[in-house]
Amino acid sequence: MQSYELRQKFLGFFEKHGHKIVPSSSLLPTDPSVLFTTAGMQQFKPYYTGEADAMADFGSLNTVSIQKSMRTSDIDEVGDDTHDTFFEMLGNFSFGGYWKKEAIEYAHEFITKIVGLEISYVTVFKGSDVVPKDKESKEIWKSLGISDVREEGMEDVFWGPTGSNGPCGPTTEIYCKNANGKDVEIWNIVFNEFFCDGSREQLLEGIAKFTPLGKKGIDTGMGLERLAMIAQKTSNIFDTDLFSPIMRTIPDVELRIKRIIADHFRSSVFLISDGVLPSNKDQGYILRRLLRRAMTYAKINGFPKEGPADLIHAIIDVYKAQYRELDSNRMKIIDMVYEEREKFGATVEKGLKELEKMQKIDAKNAFFLYQTFGVPFDIIKELRAKDLNQGAFEDELKKHQELSRTASAGMFKGGLADHDPKTIKLHTAHHLLLAVLGELFGKTVKQKGSNINQERLRIDFSFDRKLTDEEKKKIEARVNEKIQEGLLVVKREMPKEEAEKIGAEMEFGVKYGNTVLVYFIEDKKGNVFSKEFCGGPHVSNTSELGKFKIMKEEAVSAGVRRIKATLE
Ligand code: SER
């Protein structure tokens, strides 16, 4: 069964069973606490928690989707038979519609009858101190004739929140055999029974609280690449119809390297199409890392000079029927890859020579090679320092980001604090604006970037649609109101934990030291309107600012908007 048929059959099967087909959301989620969309359920989070009403939005309590997803946590495994960074997740979802029996029966029927595969074994939750063993699922599987039901724990069969909180609950997984007889997990069915107030890590450490959800929910996810591997009887995902036309465009080198190149370019194509630009931060950093790693392999192996255009065309051609945006973004994607290749190509050769000369490689000089010549972490590790620690390398990267941010750096043109009085005023106005955005659209609106000069301020923030004219007016009026109130701007130094506890605004992706400066904008009685981690400088009273005016509001990438504003 070809992959397009698997997609069609999946959607058709669940549509027939009363599920509304919902298109994939972007790879860039609106939730600012996660870098990428890693699962189909992410776009449906508010339906599980009861913040949104599925019946009103979909005309059904059940939905089905094929979601573009990115997971970079297993990047070191890419090159083996089953791991990739980008994948498509087939998923069916229910928000209070059906529960364990139907969810398991649907999955069983789809796998064994519709696709005609044999289930090798399944897993169920064995129970923990807090959540009892999932006897019900075990019984359901047995009633369907599946005898090999294995019990596993919290680490493996308990879904935790994506991001800083969310729905969670026990899961049951389906394993099938590939052409080599190896068991591969293909489908994960989550029974969302609880709301967890912390991250998955906090949940596993036992320090997150969970409370029962108002309505129980179903969330399932099946990797299309793995399903195609089983259905097409191949021993690995790279021999399926999703990858083989891509693999054919890559010159013959070590198989693992070929697979890494195919995977990394495929992810990069999707990321660029969804609006990510190569950079040194957040999603842009991951894109840069994937591209540069793949390009270094190409260089080391003496790939043709004309570059990866054929490979990119092949990727787009495999996916264009399902994701039309790839075709319309074809030239943009090629241009961006070549631009990055040019920037990188000039220096990387020097960097590789430096790397060869170095006696000892530790996190510090690995970061030097990355920072100065752009040599990717993974390449340094692979060629010269097998035990190089990624955490230590990333600490160096964060130290650098913090350095270029403190003294208000990063925010100001030219990198270092700009003490021009106009810039200082705009800086204070920037704090007021962020607080107003939070007040209007809720605390999930996070700052994603900023820049201030003498003429204007610029703020990038997570938000998934254009602002209306009315909203822009409202924002202006509210900032001006706060200016007229003559609020005090007060700097306080405090331990980072305390600043976090009081909910001071911090920029996502930035690491702060143990003692931080927090700027408060408050009235004389101490009623606080804004509190932000910040190095200053600021005016001392908002009445000094003048009149605030929005000049422009525009999109930066999917889920991120930009406001440019000034003071008159
Ligand atoms: N959220 C679960 C997963 O990603 C099931 O969709 O595995």
TrEMBL record:
Alanyl-transfer RNA synthetases family profile domain span: 1-568
Top EC class of this enzyme: ligase
> Which superkingdom is the protein from?
Bacteria
Under InterPro entries, the record lists:
aa-tRNA-synth_II/BPL/LPL, Ala-tRNA-lgiase_IIc, Ala-tRNA-ligase_IIc_anticod-bd, Ala-tRNA-synth_IIc_core, Ala-tRNA-synth_IIc_N, Ala-tRNA_ligase, Thr/Ala-tRNA-synth_IIc_edit, tRNA_SAD
- GO MF annotations, alphabetized: alanine-tRNA ligase activity; aminoacyl-tRNA deacylase activity; ATP binding; tRNA binding
Instruction: Fetch the SUPFAM superfamilies from UniProt.
Output: Class II aaRS and biotin synthetases, Putative anticodon-binding domain of alanyl-tRNA synthetase (AlaRS), ThrRS/AlaRS common domain
Q: Name one GO cellular component term.
A: cytoplasm
Which key words tag this protein in UniProt?
Answer: Aminoacyl-tRNA synthetase, ATP-binding, Ligase, Nucleotide-binding, Protein biosynthesis, RNA-binding, tRNA-binding
* GO biological process terms held by the UniProt record: alanyl-tRNA aminoacylation
Q: What is its EC number?
A: 6.1.1.7
Query: PANTHER family given for it?
Result: ALANINE--TRNA LIGASE, CYTOPLASMIC, ALANYL-TRNA SYNTHETASE
Return the similarity comment.
Answer: Belongs to the class-II aminoacyl-tRNA synthetase family.
Q: What is this protein called?
A: alanine--tRNA ligase
Q: Lineage of the source organism?
A: Bacteria, Candidatus Staskawicziibacteriota
